[in-house]
Amino acid sequence: MAVEWIWLVFIFAFGACIGSFLNVVVYRLPRDKSLVSPPSACPACNTPIRFYNNIPLFSWLILRGKCPDCKAPISCRYFLIELTTAILFGGLYLCFFWFQYRQTGLAGPAATQQFFGGGGWLLYLVMATLFAVFLAASAIDMELWIIPLELCWFVTIAGLIASGVAGFVIDSGIIAEYDLFPMVAGSPRFAALTAGGAIGLGISLILLLAGIIKPSYEMAKDEEGDCEEAVKSQENEPEFEDRKEILKEIIFLLPVVIGAFVTLKVTQMPFLQDKWGSFIAMPVVSGLIGSLGGYLAGAAIVWAVRIFGTLGFNKEAMGLGDVHLMGAAGAVIGAKWVVLAFFIAPFLGILWALYQAIFKKMRQIPYGPFLSLAVFAVIIFHDWMQNILRNYYGL
User: Fold this and answer.
1) Contact between residue 294 and residue 282 where contact means Cβ atoms under 8 Å apart
2) Closest by alpha carbon to 308, among 243, 395, 383, 255?
3) CA 353 to CA 255: how far, in whole Å?
4) How many other β-carbons are positioned within 10 Å of the β-carbon of residue 244?
5) Is residue 324 exposed (0-12), middle (13-18) or buried (19+ Cβ within 10 Å)?
6) How far apart are CA 145 and CA 50, in angstroms?
7) Distances (CA, A) of 258 to 120, 199, 206, 251, 272
8) Which of 80, 42, 24 is nearest to 50 (CA)?
């Protein structure tokens, strides 16, 4: 049992260290600064932070939130992100392996045996990656009202790789039964729509890069590339005809829709049906297409709201950052769960609005953090939600 506690403490400490790095990401990434160099320094006096003053959690408390050289205040955000990441990492481990609040079906009576021997480490790593990156994206979104697409792409790639190799690490039957990773082995139609949609997306990207399709809301960056200043100076932003701009996005999506339905029809031809079913039954193919399907489903549902909302109100509805955020979530948790998370997010927004109304708060925050919280809830309360969907809706 001592080994279990030592490992839990290590995970908590590891999470705090990741949180320290996330602080660098939150500050530097949206400002187009390197994440590697120069070393961290005090924003006020520019003095490099000594290694013994850069210990996650403890340094901020010991220094009482002040720079040791110039005594300038250090935002409590640094401490909160480190603590939140540590709690998320530790809580995820407890939920999956210690208390088994979410069943994984992995062999082993002890948490560490499930983690190392049962292949749980792969599931944990991809989920922890999503938690950490979405935390950073939410912090950036709350400060600057933007979501760096690099963060979404990172999670998407992690989801695709993990889903592709999961069948080699964990038994495919367990993956399917406990819904550990997205799979499409038993859904040939959804697999066909996904494959065709992915092909269409590739065509759209090629046409976009070639200049045949024009990007929407195209705007030149300022010379400094300072996102913070751009957000603060919104009165200087150019005016757009929102409905006209959203039509560019509809044109971009046409090859995706056409590719999906053409592939669906082709794979339903009698001489291809059996071959297609055998092909998607391969664990690698099933995982990759399942992850791609989750990505497309997550991006599609947000993009649909963005398009119809903009056409209806002639004002840009939701941001493309939210589209990529939910696409990344879908690549990790799958199509069904990312759609469910999207419909949970508004209720979290309502709770925030009630809090503002009761305590007379006027602070508005973007939608990205609500989407992230909804994804976290779907991951943690997966089994409880699955029982509700199965008992009441037969899903």
Assistant:
1) no
2) 243
3) 39
4) 10
5) buried
6) 32
7) 39, 10, 16, 11, 20
8) 42
Q: Which residues contact 227 (CB under 8 A, 6 or more apart)?
A: 30, 31, 32, 144, 146
Helix axes 335-359, 382-393, angle to 10 degrees: 110
Contact 104, 123 (CB under 8 A): yes
What is the rounded (10 degree) CA torsion for 291, 371, 84, 119? -20
Answer whether 301's CB lies under 8 Å from 253's CB. no
Q: How far apart are CA 332 and CA 12, in angstroms?
A: 23
Q: What confidence score (pLDDT) does residue 362 get? A: 61
> For residue 109, what pLDDT is reported?
81
Across the chain, which has 395 residues, the per-10-residue mean pLDDT values are: 90 96 93 84 79 85 84 88 97 93 86 89 97 96 92 97 95 92 92 97 96 79 43 55 92 97 94 93 95 97 95 89 96 96 94 81 80 96 92 76
Length of the chain: 395
Residues 375, 302 contacting (CB under 8 angstroms): no
pLDDT at position 223, please?
36
75 to each of 20, 79, 101, 215, how far by Cα in Å? 13, 8, 35, 38
**Nearest CA-CA partner of 322 in 144, 66, 149:** 149
**Helices 242-267, 188-209: inter-axial angle, 10-degree rounding:** 140
Contact (CB, 8 A) for 275 and 317: no
Sign of CA dihedral 26, 29, 35, 38: negative
